[in-house]
Specification:
Strand 17 and strand 18 form a beta hairpin. Helix 5 runs parallel beside helix 11 and helix 13 crosses helix 14. Helices cover 32% and strands 22% of the residues. The chain is globular and about 70 Å long. A 12-stranded mixed β-sheet has the order 4-5-3-6-7-8-9-10-14-13-12-11. It has a 4-stranded mixed β-sheet with strand order 19-18-17-20. The protein has a two-stranded antiparallel sheet with strand order 1-2. By secondary structure, it is α/β, with parallel strands linked by helices. The chain folds into 2 domains: 360 residues, Rossmann fold, CATH 3.40.50; 114 residues, GMP Synthetase, Chain A, domain 3 (2-Layer Sandwich), CATH 3.30.300.30. It contains 17 helices and 20 strands.
Length: 483
């Protein structure tokens, strides 16, 4: 039912509040097993326990056989069918790595020939990617799996109790108002586009009225709100918050330090993407646990070879489960991460990374061609930057950065700017200089995300030569800790 009605989501969200409240209230009372279909219950059961090796092998086998038998772009690998049935992980190594540019504009090549149009849910990649893409999910399965995964995550770490109001700072359009209430997800959705001092008193009044118990947010949007509330003695409006779920962005350690200080509750970061290939969340040491039953995780080096040694930096690659319409196989996400030591006991098969460094385009190019993860600069703890509501780096040429800074209540003076300039030079080992531009607002994507770095340089010539150096430098960055 939910997938069939998904095409009406835009109309529902644009409707007057009284219509959303009435329709949403009624729809929210339909049991999830009815809204998301019969598969939802099976995913609930699957995520409630650790999967067996046999179950994971069946998932991978099914995805790969679907591809070679029914997807035109993989039919040249039909000869792998016997190996897939007996050793699916070994067979997977014979599949080529694919990224957004391979899928873009080639829907027919990567759509299963036996899937019916009624099975296909047309979807778009999110607003932060440099390569927008149209693709298909499978109705009744792919989104049902994600809903069940989030429900299981909420049980593991208290980020939603299934009944309380959630403050949603996740780019949802709120129309001419600063906020709206969406009763299906119980979201108090507030605008990410007006987080400037002149509007923040109104945000505080909204929160005082609704008193949300949970927060689901972009870190870059939550940070200026908390900074202002703290400086203006209004933190009581969030006194009932029991858990925070951070989504969809690379997260600066300075943000997490503020969240831990100002919100005495669990703060968990989630990793995922529109293609629904992989799903992960942070533990109390800041490590990302990738859920084996959700999709198959790989980490590869600049040559596409698997990384198996902890401490090495690579690109996250995923193979999707439960999408027979358009299976993503060895899909290059563009996200860079460092492999961590495996967990012990029953969780030893769970892939672990710490930290996730962001996308390829979130690396700074030094004048000597070295690459440095923008999260390394974000972890630098430049004292003046902790007083900014938002910051955003921009790069047009190697060795030169522009830092757009939105000052907070205390402002920035000439001495602060000199300190930032010296700190960037020191942190990049002399590889970059920075010009600080004070501004009222930074650039956001169409859905309200903030990219920490606007990178205008093609990184292709630099990545292979610099990836090892980057891994060494990145060890200085703090992992993502949760309280």
């Amino acid at each position: 039912m939910d997938d069939q009605l998904h095409r009406l989501l835009g109309l529902y969200m644009q409707a007057p509040q009284w219509i959303k409240s009435s329709i949403g209230w009624a729809y929210a009372r339909i049991p999830p097993t009815v809204r998301f279909g019969a598969a939802y219950r099976s995913y609930q059961d699957a995520f409630a326990r650790q999967p067996t090796e046999a179950e994971l092998q069946r998932c991978l086998t099914h995805t790969l056989l679907t591809a070679v038998q029914h997807v035109p772009g993989y039919r040249h690998l039909q000869h792998l069918a016997p190996l897939i049935q007996n050793q699916p992980r070994e067979a997977l190594r014979h599949f080529p790595l694919r990224d957004k540019t391979d899928y873009k504009g080639r829907l027919d090549d990567y759509t299963s020939s036996i899937s019916r149009p009624a099975q296909r849910l047309k979807t778009f990649t999110g607003g932060s990617t440099s390569v927008p893409m149209v693709f298909f999910l499978e109705k009744g399965r792919t989104r049902a799996r994600e809903w069940a995964a989030f429900e299981a995550l909420s049980r593991q770490v208290d980020v939603d109790d299934g009944k309380s109001t959630i403050l949603a700072l996740r780019g949802r359009s709120t129309g001419p108002q600063l906020w709206m209430h969406e009763p299906i997800k119980r979201h108090l959705a507030v605008s990410c586009d007006h987080l400037v001092p002149e509007h923040l008193p109104a945000y505080a009044d909204i929160l005082s009225r609704w008193r949300p118990r949970y927060i689901h947010a972009y870190a870059s949007a939550l940070y200026p709100l908390l900074l202002w509330l703290s400086a203006n003695q209004r933190m009581e409006v969030l006194s009932q918050v029991r858990g925070v779920l951070l989504t969809s962005e690379s997260i600066q350690p300075v943000h997490l330090e503020a969240f831990r200080k100002l919100l005495p509750c669990p703060v968990v970061a989630h990793y995922g993407h529109s293609e629904r290939v992989l799903f992960a969340h942070t533990d109390d040491l800041g490590r990302y646990h990738f859920w084996p039953r959700y999709g198959y995780f790989e980490l590869v080096d600049e040559h596409g070879q698997p990384i198996t040694q902890a401490g090495q930096l690579g690109e996250i690659v995923g193979t999707s489960y439960d999408n027979e319409v358009m299976p993503f196989i060895r899909y290059r996400t563009g996200d860079m991460a460092m492999l961590a030591e495996p967990l012990s006991g029953a969780l030893s098969d769970v892939p672990v990374c710490a930290p996730i460094h962001g996308r390829k385009q979130e690396f700074v190019v030094c004048h000597d061609k070295r690459l440095i993860s923008i999260t390394t600069l974000g972890a630098a703890h430049f004292a003046p930057l902790e007083r900014c509501l938002r910051i955003q780096y921009e790069q047009h040429q190697p060795g030169h950065l522009i830092l757009h800074a939105v000052p907070g209540p205390q402002g920035l003076n000439a001495q602060d700017i000199e300190q930032i300039e010296a700190a960037v030079k020191q942190k990049t080992e002399g590889g970059c200089r920075v010009d600080v531009h004070l501004t009222d607002q930074v650039s956001l994507t169409r859905i309200g995300k903030q990219r920490l770095l606007l990178q205008h340089i093609d990184l292709t010539p630099y990545l292979g030569a610099s990836i090892q150096n980057t891994a060494q430098i990145s060890e200085e960055a703090q992992p993502l800790h949760t309280p």
